[in-house]
Structures are given as structure tokens and as C-alpha cells.
Amino acid sequence: MSDHHHKETFVTKYIFSQDHKMISKQFLVTGIFMGIIGGFMSMLFRLQIAWPEKSFSIIEAFLGDHQTDGIMNPDMYLALVTIHGTIMVFFVLTAGLSGTFSNLLIPLQIGARDMASGFLNMVSYWLFFLSSVVMVISLFVEAGPASAGWTIYPPLSALPQAIPGSGTGMTLWLVSMAIFIASSLIGSLNYIVTILNLRTKGMKMTRLPLTMWAFFITAIIGVISFPVLLSAALLLILDRSFGTSFFLSDIFISGEVLHYQGGSPVLFEHLFWFLGHPEVYIILLPALGITSEIISTNARKPIFGYRAMIGSIMAIAFLSTIVWGHHMFISGMNPFLGSVFTFTTVLIAIPSAVKAFNFITTLWKGNLQLNPAMLFSIGLVSTFVTGGLTGLVLGDSALDINVHDTYFVVAHFHLVMGVSALLGMFAGVYHWFPKMYGRMMNKTLGYWHFWLTIITAYGVFFPMHFVGLAGLPRRYYTNTNFPMFDDLVEINVFMTVMAIIGGAAQLIFLANFFISIYRGNKAEQNPWKSNTLEWTTPVEHIHGNWPGAIPEVHRWAYDYSKTDENGEYVHGKDFVLQTTPLLDGEEPS
């Protein structure tokens, strides 16, 4: 395999590639493009929230008929919120983390030539690309894109005549998501099979880097939960287009009694959130795995509590699939059932706390290398803890009722999921950019990017908790009709200014990323002095990853600063590659 070379054309190498390294780049660049769209939408609706009666030429330029004299229409506000949430959750964070880093790292870190099926890997990307195209096309239909919130609850999403955003735009949303789910399922099955079957000699499951455990468990969650969302989308399509009543009953529109009966919108909520909550960890777990690798590498210390970290990943995965009802406390749920979901929700704080504690103890007294990847990883630990604490409020059925559908909820999940996952994705890009492109990103620009991002992220979402506690409801395009919220106007303006600065800060990353691909300093083979297998491959990408035989593994991935009884490094340096054989008398890891 290693000696096999075949002539590649531009199309086979850069477009219809079956090489996992190229496919990871395709996922990343597509995710970045979708992130630009999703982020720009948030800038538009933040302008509307902060200055609801002020005219903006940028709104007039981009929204066309969906605005009046530079002020966006209410329907378009809800549509922007809907598509922003959809794009960021599925097309940026899922693709940017699982799609990018699972593809890049799984074969490299387990010692495999490629994925179990290169063809299915390619199909997974192109289905993702097609779903992205369909979602973008939905922005340009005449009545506007889907506008039932990213959770697309019926009956708004089930009745094309209900609101303008429930027409063709909603149909395209459902088609896009069905294709996206097919992509995710194919990818997840490929990841699972590859990790189970293609590990190199000596790579026991207990020697896998924590990144591999995170990607592996994430793929399992996806295989379990994504089909449920697919069923919800297909049943919703049947309700919309074929007259069924899975989610509809006793519907009145403009005084007209529609013929639907026997359905239940709460059934849709169950189906949606059975994926919707595990999706939080489908996004978060890869980011946490990436953080484990980067913190250990840059603290020059073994990861603290390796087996406890694996156990916490498994516990989070299990609990995340049985807590979906905490999104439905005000749906008329039986109070006893609510108490069950409260218990399981609060229980998830234990494995989450294990991870946070182990991150902090790995950092403690480490020889910290504060490069951009390390800073973004530490930032993730910060937002994961601060955002997670507010989850204790929302996980309690009695407390949740007071803040449900307020900005408190928006603040919580943006910090604990959105910002944390983005910081993890940025950390991964800075850390593995040399492996992806053979060049280094600019460190100074990376520092600017981090500090502006973390400051503005807290500047937006920390005050938002207090706005939510004051009762400000989410998804309202203006609050000027409610005098009780007049005192919150200045806070909304502050958050919007922070959001715009934070959005502008991402331009630093974009410039650094794309310029470094062509003009960055050339990378050495192992620039971070890391232990894992990917850093044993040549800087220049080759078919099959390693020239000659695949290396054999003799130890775990975290032999940093290993010393003898005299305090001397056992191998003469503060890191030991997994491929390094054990010395006489050295304890195996």
C-alpha cells in the first residue's frame, strides 16, 4: 500500500478525493464558509434588537423586499434567527469539529492508512456539501427562508399557510436536514468501524488519545440519535405535503377549521429533542477531546485521570440521551416525569465536573506553553464551566419555568455549547494546521484573535443572563412595546457592540488561515513536540500516510516529562513518541 502511487488529476485530488486528509480540509473550508453566513446573520438581527426603529443601509442592501426603509420585517427577523441557529449548530460546529477533525485525526492517530471506506467518506462530504447548498438556496425563495425557530415546532412549521417562512423555505430546510443526517450517519459509521478495526499493532483502546475516545463516542451518539430527527423531519414533510396528522390537531386559521385531528405537536418535541440534546454533546465532546490533547501537550504533563476522562465521556454520552425532556418542562409534562428528567439532567454535572477538574489539574504546575491553541483550550475550560453552572438552573423543572424562552436560555447554551465548541474548533485548527497544510499560522494574529474573541464572547453572553432573569423573551424582533424592558435597552446596545467587535475579530482568523496556507512559515515534522502518531508522518502528505510500514505503538499518548528517581528525563527529552520502545526496566503505560 505504501509503495502504491497512482496519477491523480485535479478533480480526483481536490474535488472527488477519497483521502481522509483532503476530505477534512473540505469539511473545514465548507464549515468556515457556512460560519461566515451564520455569523453575518447574527450581526443583522443584533442590529435590529439594539436599535429596533433605526434604519440601516446594510439591512436594506441584503434583505431586499424583506425590509422597509432599512428596518427588517418581523417575519425576516425570525427567519434570520432560525437559519443562524441551524447553520451554526449543524453546518459549522458539527462539520467543523466531527467532520474536520474526525477525518483528519482518526487514521493518523490510530495508525491507519485511511478510513475504513474512502468512498463512503467522500459520499459523506458531498452529501454535507449538498445539504449546505440547499440550505443556502432556501435563503433566496420568494416568501423567505424557514422561520419557525431552529427547533421548527409545529404547527408553524407544519402548515405552509401559517406564516411566510413556512412555505417553500421550510420545505427546503427539511430536505437539507434530511440530506445532512444521511451525511452524518455515513460518516459516523465510518469513524466507528475505523477505530474498532484499523488500529495499528500495540494501539490498544487504553492507549488511544482522548481525541479518539471523544470522536468514537460522539459517532456512537450520532448513530443512535440522528435517525430520530430524520423520522421527525419525514413525518413533518408528510404533514405538510400529504395531508397526514402526526403533529397536527384542532387547527384554526383565520376562523377556518382545518381537517387535521389526532396528532400531537408534543410528539414532535420528543422526537426533535431526542436528537437535539445529544447534539449538544455531538458538538461538545470532540471539542473536549481536542482540548485534552492540546492541554496535555502544552502543559508538558500527562493528562490527569486518563481513565476517569474516558469514563466521563461515556457517562456524558449515556446521560445525554436520557435527558431530552428538560427542554419540555412547560409542555404540560407530568410533574413526576419532570422530576425524573431533573434528576438525570443534574446528574450530568458529575462527569462534566470530572472533565473540568482534570483539565485544571493537568494545567496545575505545568510548564505551560501559551500558544494560541493552548489559550483557546483554556478559554474552552472557562466557558464550559461558567456556561455549565447556569445549566443547573435550567435543569431544575421548578426554576426553569421562570426563565424558559427568555434570553437566560440563549446565554446558557451559547456559552456552554456555541462558544465552547467554537473555541475548541479554533484550538484544533491552530494546533493541527501544520499537519493539514504543512505551514504554521501567525502566532501574533492568533493572540489577537483569542483575546478579542474571549472578551467579546463574555461581553455578549454574560450580561444576557441578567437580561433573561429580568424576563426579556427571546425571538422578539423588538421590545419597544413593553415598557417594563425599557431599562434593558442600553444592555442590548452593549451586547450588540460586543457582538460586532467579536464578529470583526473573526476576520483576523480568516486572514491568518487563508494567507498561512500559502505564505505561512514551513512547518517542521513535530512542531509542538507531541507524542501522538500523526506527528510521525512526513510533512508532505503522501498516499497511505506513512512511507513503508505503519509504526508500532509501545505506550500511551501522554508520556510527557517522564523522569527517573533522579529527576532526569527517562529518554533525554520531555516527550516520548508512542512509537518509542520501552527501555529496560521502564514501566509500560
From TrEMBL:
PROSITE patterns assigned to the protein according to its UniProt record, in alphabetical order: COX1, COX1_CUB
Membrane topology designation: Multi-pass membrane protein
A GO biological-process term: respiratory electron transport chain
Subcellular location: Membrane
Transmembrane stretches, start-end: 27-47, 77-106, 118-141, 172-198, 210-238, 271-292, 304-324, 336-361, 373-395, 407-433, 445-471, 491-515
Pfam families in the record: COX1 (PF00115)
Top-level taxon in the UniProt lineage: Bacteria
Span of domain Cytochrome oxidase subunit I profile: 10-564
GO cellular component, one term: membrane
Recorded family membership: Belongs to the heme-copper respiratory oxidase family.
Protein name: Cbb3-type cytochrome c oxidase subunit I
Organism (species): Tenacibaculum pelagium
